[in-house]
Amino acid sequence: MGPTHPESCSVIVVGSGLAGLAAASAALRSNANRVILLERAIKPGGNSIKASSGMNGAPTRFQNQAHPDNAFFSDTLKSAGKRGTFSAVERDQRKRLIKLLTNESAAAVNFLADEIGVDLSVVTLLGGHSVARTHRGAGRTPPGADIVMKLLQSLKGDSRFDLRTGCEVTKLIQSARSCDANGPPEIVGVEYLSDNELTSLAGPVIFATGGFAGDTDNLLAKYRPDLAGLPSSNEPRPGMHGLLSNVGATLVDMDSVQIHPTGFVDPLSTSSALKFLAAEVLRGEGGILLHNGRRFVNEIDTREHVSRAIMDLEYTSDRPRQWSVQILLDPGACRAAAPYVSFYEQKGLMSRKKVSELDGTTKKTLKDVSMAAAKHNADLFGRSTFGSWALAGDQEDDQKEVSVGWVTPVTHFTMGGIAINEHCQVLASTLGASELIVPGLWAAGELTGGIHGDNRLGGSSLLECVVFGQIAGEQAAATCRK
């Protein structure tokens, strides 16, 4: 069946994760006549709805006012590592994007808290951060779900918003000729398939369809074959990157894939390739990682470092490839992360044990951690804070309960993707001093590359969705009004 007649110009957003929702919201606030959001799944929310650690922001009113946070940019740049040093142009572009991400972070937190009504009052220190700056709520709803549901509710209250689920975008429609003789043709709309019917829409297009960590047999296998066999925190679905590269978009950093060190192994389904994430807040609040009862790493170091430390151990299964590591939270950490721990325990991913029930090696480890947490001894792995750790390392600990789960590294986030500039315009080339864009096309969220480099800081995925999603929405709305 051929396409129907195009509808009147609308801002077209593809993908209903947080980046797509933020883009739609910004487009409406920028007076777009209409926003049509296309989602290939039956339910909106994408992977964003599963995000559990929180959202970075600095400096914000929720942080410790006695110690101003001026290190977000430097922490992010340090985490990005050496990637992007191949040319001055690429290096400077990454710095500009990081600066934009961090400078707009406080405004992003304020927007969600003040205009959308999201509770972001609890601030936690995550791995790779020098200051506590990851925001989440005090309630039982994980931050990703809370943000997505409330933002979606806000959008549904606007008559100009049109959400269409079960819609697979199959083509980007190009104009007959290029706006720039040296560049690709302008994107003027999309075609999508729904219920075996092909429909076309006219208007500027924003792509926010996420990464490719779950695209095991295609993009992941192509760019990181060494990660074959690893389980993932992402649903198994194809990445949409090829659709954009077919119209001239440039791909960058595609071999940069983040492994999250702690995906739960469900005791009732150990061979499942899809793992539920053990939120980084568990370690931030004092959780420790054990192999045969012993610690082996600073648990709040970067995800890259912690993952590598686990993967240097001998793995216990190759279908999927996974390791036998315990995550253990003492009573103080359990209280501080109570909504998470309760949820994981209800799902059977964590269980309670008295300290007296643990083996001798683990009990000795708990005593050592208690001494380090109380500053009686230096930590052997260089960990400087143990969050809300409360065990004292004495005999009274024996009757107290800890919560324990089995975790393993999982493919989690792809730092590589579509190249963009500070206006979220999709780039056809990143070479040379002048940019070459794909006109009429914007991108935001995990689909994009060139920001996080070798390693993304925990808490920055939700942030980049809001910051760059809003920019894309504003820019596309302005184009549609011309």
Question: Can you characterise this structure?
Answer:
Irreversibly catalyzes the reduction of fumarate to succinate. Belongs to the FAD-dependent oxidoreductase 2 family. FRD/SDH subfamily. It comes from Sporothrix epigloea. With 482 residues, this protein is an alpha+beta fold. The N terminus is likely disordered. The protein contains 13 helices and 23 strands.
List the helices and strands and how they pair.
Layout: E1 11-14, H1 18-29, E2 35-39, E3 55-56, H2 72-80, H3 88-103, H4 105-116, E4 122-124, E5 134-136, H5 143-156, E6 161-165, E7 168-174, E8 187-194, E9 197-202, E10 205-207, H6 219-223, H7 241-245, E11 251-252, E12 257-264, E13 276-277, H8 281-284, E14 288-290, H9 303-311, E15 317-318, E16 321-322, E17 325-329, H10 331-336, H11 338-346, E18 350-354, H12 360-373, E19 401-414, E20 417-419, E21 425-429, E22 436-443, E23 448-449, H13 460-481
Helix pairs in contact: 1-5, 1-13, 2-3
In short:
By secondary structure, the chain is of the alpha+beta class. The chain contains 13 helices and 23 strands.
List how many beta strands DSSP finds: 23
Portion of residues in helices?
25-40%
The value of Rg in angstroms is 23 Å
pLDDT average, as an integer? 92
CATH superfamily of the largest domain: FAD/NAD(P)-binding domain
User: pLDDT under 50 segments (min length 5)?
Assistant: 1-7
Q: In this structure, how is the largest beta sheet organized?
A: 6 strands, mixed
In total, how many domains does the architecture comprise? 2
The termini sit apart by 32 Å
CATH fold description of the largest domain: FAD/NAD(P)-binding domain
Order the strands across the largest sheet as they lie in space: 6-2-1-10-22-21
Number of helices: 13
| Basic shape | globular
Structural class: alpha+beta
CATH first level of the largest domain: which class? Answer: Alpha Beta
Tell me what portion of residues adopts beta-strand conformation. 15-25%
CATH architecture of the largest domain: 3-Layer(bba) Sandwich
